[in-house]
Amino acid sequence: MGRSRFVVAVIVLGALLAGCGDGGGSQAPTPDRSRDSGAVDSSRVEPVGLIGNWTVTAPDPDSSGILRLAPVDQGGLSWFGTCGTAMGTWRADTNGLFLAGVPKNPASGERRCRLAPDWLRQATSFRFEGEIPVLLDDQGREVARLLPGAKPTPGPHVVPSLAEPPMVTPEVRQAFTPAVGLPPHLKPASRDDLRGRWVPVGPARGSAHVELRNDGEWRGSDGCNGQHGRWVAGPDGALLATAGPSTLIGCRSVPVATWLSEASRAGLDGEVLVLLTAKGTETGRLARG
C-alpha cells in the first residue's frame, strides 16, 4: 500500500491485571450464544439498573466473585475473582440484551486460574427479579444472579476508584435511553440475516472485513489489523457488539470494529447492511463478501 514503515502498538482493552501465571492459551469452541433473545420479555427493561458493584452467585461456586458494571468513563467492566482483577467492556439495552467483552480463558488444562468466569461470555440477556439483576444465556437459562452492596478490594495494580460504587448521572441515563427505530426504508436485520462475512461498501475497502459467527464471536480486519469481539442480535434490528484487543498498524484502514461497537441497530437496504447508533446516526455500510 505504498508504506515505508509501520508502527505497531498493542491495545489491551481486557487484560489480567493481577493473577496466577501468564495469559497464554486458547479457548475451546463455545456453544451458540448470539440468537435473537427469545428469553427477553417484550416490555422494556432499564439497563441502568445493571450499574453497580455486585456479589455474584452462579451455579458453579468457583465462578463466584464481584462484578463491577460501570459507565465506560468510570471503568467499564471489572471482575474481582480469586485470580485477581480482569477488565473488560459491556453493553446492554432496553430490549434486555446484554453482552460482556472479557479476556478469553485458556483451554482446559493449560491454566488453573481463569481470567474471568465462563458465564460472563455466555450471558446474552438480562431480567430483573425485584431489584436483583439476573443474567441469562441464549436459551433463557440463568447463568448468574447479581446481589447489591459488594465491596471489592482493588489490589495493588488497580486504581482505587475502579473499586468504588459507580455513579449514575443524568448523562449516564441518557446514554441508556432506548434506541430510535430504523428508518422506514430499512428492513430490520435478524440474527440469520447478520451471520456471515461482510465487507465495507466502497472502492477503498482494501482487505477490511468482518465475519459474524454463529457462536457469538466476530472476527475481522480493518485492512491492516486483526480484530475481534462478541455480538448479539435482538428484535426490531437490535444489535450489540463489543470489540476486543487489536494491534494498531498505521495504514488507510476502515474502522469496522468501531462501526460494530457503536451500533445499536442494524437494517438492510436491499442487500446492504446498514449499522446505526442509538440516536439513528449511520456508522457504516457493509455488503456480503
* Number of E strands: 19
The first-level CATH class of the largest domain is given as Mainly Beta
Tell me roughly what share of residues is in helical segments: under 10%
Distance between the termini: 21 Å
Instruction: Specify the overall morphology.
Output: globular
What is the overall number of helices?
Answer: 4
Per the CATH scheme, the topology name of the largest domain is: Lipocalin
Strand line-up in the sheet with most strands: 10-17-18-19-11-12-13-14-15
| Secondary-structure arrangement, i.e. CATH architecture of the largest domain | Beta Barrel
Q: What is the total domain count?
A: 2
> Which class best fits the helix and strand makeup?
mainly beta
- Give the strand content: 25-35%
**Low-confidence runs:** 1-42
Strand and helix order? EEEEEEHEEEHEHEEEEEEHEEE
* Mean of all residue-level pLDDT scores: 83
User: From the alpha-carbon coordinates, what is the Rg to the nearest angstrom?
Assistant: 19 Å
Main sheet: strands, sense, barrel: 9 strands, antiparallel
